[in-house]
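Sample entry as discussed:
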Amino acid sequence: MNKKIIFITVLFLIITSFSPEYVPTPDEVTHFYQTKTLAILEDNPIAEYNFVIQEFMKKEWKLTPYDFIKYSDFEKKRMDPQYSFIMLNEVRFDKDKSLTKYVFISLMLGGSVKIVSNMPDLCPVPLAYAGVDEDSYDYKIQTILRFIQNHVELIHKNSKVIGTNMFKYYNDNMSDVKTKTLYLIPSELAKDCNTEAKIKKVYPYKFKLVSRDEVSKAIDEKDTTVVFLHKVGPEGTRLIARCYKVLIGAADSKFYYFDYHRISDEKPDGFLLSDFKRLAKK
């Protein structure tokens, strides 16, 4: 089902920020626990995203009381510090000459900030390039909601982790991937490592080439044996910018690997042979 017209037209054309590199303060992290979290819904009552976010918030959200509001109510609520927001946010990097826009899911704090893009963002996680079909990522929102909560708990307990490159903290978990089964969707791999034979030459540990449905099943069942690839790239949109590569635990929602590369002829849109070699050596 092609769902992108249903909700992107409202959310993404209005909520636009130009850098997701905001660094929250320890006080902001502490204040979050005093808020009620509002997940922003599309004003269209039958929008597919509304069903996805409501289902997953009810399954996964534990840290604060929560509710759902329509986007038309967001402006009324966002200046109030008693609220935090789960929202989709369109991001463009200031120094990126390609002007590529990415979709992030963010946990933002309300307060007296005039511009939406300046609202404190506790955990911006890349989901996709703007315009890419939501089918490529909507089933992963469940585990990303788990990760956001785990990450906030981490930086609340250990403020030293807070920083512009704070997701690189999770690369300390890289060696643990070898104890799991790595779930990989073939279309998300570079051509020189998109078959079992090619992968085994450089990565002699457990992996499985799977479908999106198999990843979704592992996430929903919280399969403790599975780590899956979350890849963010242009998906044939002909843009040449960043390719994010994240390995996430299906059960613990932990990041086991976080990196990105600039797409080029040498480094195409996908998990690279060099990524497999890095995992194998760790």
The first strand starts at residue 16 and ends at 17.
